[in-house]
Each structure stands twice: as structure tokens, then as C-alpha cells.
Amino acid sequence: MLEEVERWLSSRSWSAADRPLEQLLEAKRQSGRTVSVVLPALDEEATVGAIVATIRAGLMTEAVPLVDELVVLDSGSADRTAEVAAAAGARVVHRDSVLPRIPALPGKGEVLWRSLLATTGDIICFVDADLREFSATFVSGIVGPLLTDPDVHFVKAMYDRPLETAGATAAVQDSSDPGGEQGGRVTELVARPLLNLHWPQLAGFVQPLGGEYAARRSLLERLPFPVGYGVELGLLVDALHTVGLDGLAQVDVGVRKHRHQGGQALGRMAAAIYRAAQLRLARGHLVRPRLTQFRRSEQGFAPYTTEVDTEERPPMAEIPEYAARRAA
């Protein structure tokens, strides 16, 4: 299985720079495909406007018409998210106005699911609305393979996630601790072990829970959507079983900065992700006792694999030597 992951990494992992905008625009023109960008948003007035403005200025101009539709799906913000997004040039759709006969449930996945009804693009690109220092490369990078390679159906962004605390940014990981001082704690502690153990074909994904990914509508419309934080893991696993590993890809877009959650929120995310995995494990999958992680090198993200501790010691009371000592 490690050989398959390495093969996939060499053939389905790219950098955003690998596909210049001119190439993407020509591929889009020839294919006639349309692109929708969706920002799921809840109380993101501080960041959503800059993201919308960046996409419109970089990818929705007469010279660069890569994105055809930009929708902010508001899931009930109590702040000025909708107003700020609209002023920046997005079409704002309120969650409850989409498919109103089905009462909406709280959760990110619910909003992403309903966005399929609120958009028209052949390719749908999801971008979290809490990103700072946002670059349009996040969109063009992950949409690119879907425009240029008909065999690719689902693309995740990969990036560094510096962990910022109390206004300070932790140093990017060093070679002695490739995962140190980084965001993505739920990824490293929950999602990556789950994927490596139960869906080892997906071990090559650097950011399996990242909120920036793009897919063909023809795939998304066939997948169930967990309504909460389990949506990213659920879609990735189900996409694997629907289009196969070579239908999936990832693109390096650099650095992602966003608001980090507190410990309790991370616990809720972890529980939702575990539940999404639990439901899918009912289908039955093999377990591989190895874990693939990543460090950045001059050539990009490089995988390294370690064995997972699977052995267990019995209770010490069952060990004869221990029992004899206690008796003495």
C-alpha cells in the first residue's frame, strides 16, 4: 500500500504554479465548463469581505474570467457577514432559503450540501470564510486539475498551517518535529490516524480536513454530506470509493492562516469526525498499522512513514512474576 501512496503522490500532487492562469483559461474555454466558488460563513464579517474582493479582482475580471459564480452561504450569522460579503461583490444566500421544505440543521456540512442547490457551476470550489491574507491561488490552484485533467474529480488544497497564539505566529515546523507548532491538531490526532488505519489509500493527503477543495458537481451530487464537521472526512472517503484513488488529487497553495479554535471546539470537531468515520467503517475496510506524515522540503511536501504501536500488554496482575512478588 505504501508503494501505491507514493505512486499517487508522484502523479496526483502538484503545486499551484504548475498550471498558469493562461493554461486554465484556455482549458476552461475549450471545455465550456463553469466554476462556482462557495464560502460557507457564520459570523465572519472580519474576513469574508477581503476573500470575496480578492477572488473578484483576481479571477472574475474580463481579462481573467476563471470563476463564473461567487456565493457566500450564510448559515445564520448574527454579525454583518451578509452585508460585508454583498458589499464586496458576492451573491449572498441564506441557508434557510435553500430547500425550505427540509428544516435546516446546524453545521458546516449542511451549508455545503445546500450550496449544490444554490449554485450552477460544473465545478464547485469550497473556501472557508475565516482565512486571512487570502490569495486567489487557493481557488485557481485547486480548480486547475479539474479543468485540465478529465480523470481528476476531487482536489484538496495542501498548505502549511502556522499556529498563532496570543498574536504570535509559531515558527514553521522544523526537521526534528515536522508536525510541531502547527495548526491542524485534529488532523494529526484524529483524522490522519483514522485514515492511515482504515483507508490507507488516503494516507497521501497532507490536509485531509482542510476546508479548501474543489470537485465536479457530477461527483458531489452523488455523495452523502455529514451535516457537521465530519463533512470533509466523509466526502474524501466517499469520493475514494466512488471515483477511485486516481480520481483524487491535491495541490500545494503555500500557507493558510485562519482563526484557530479552542480546545473544547476541537473536541467537538474530533467527535464529529470520528462519528463520520464510524459510519463508514461499517462498510468494512482493512487496517494498516502504519502512519504517513509530511515534512516540507525544497521539492515540496515529502512523506515519511512510521509504524503504529498496535501491541498491548496484559494487565500486570496476570503476569506470574508480578503475582509472585505481590504474594511475597
Task: Record keyword descriptors for this entry.
328 residues, alpha/beta, 11 helices, 20% strand, globular
Protein described:
The chain contains eleven helices and 14 strands. The protein is α/β, with parallel strands linked by helices and 328 residues long. The protein has one domain: Spore Coat Polysaccharide Biosynthesis Protein SpsA, Chain A. It has an eight-stranded mixed β-sheet with strand order 1-11-7-10-5-2-3-4, with helices on both faces. Strands 6-12 form a two-stranded antiparallel ribbon. Strands 8-9 form a two-stranded antiparallel ribbon.
CATH class: Alpha Beta
Count of DSSP-assigned helices: 11
Which regions are unreliable across 5 or more consecutive residues at pLDDT < 50? 166-181
Q: What is the correct CATH architecture?
A: Alpha-Beta Complex
- What profile does the largest beta sheet have? 8 strands, mixed
CATH third-level topology: Spore Coat Polysaccharide Biosynthesis Protein SpsA, Chain A
Spell the H/E element sequence: HEHEHEHEHEEHEEEHEHHEEHEEH
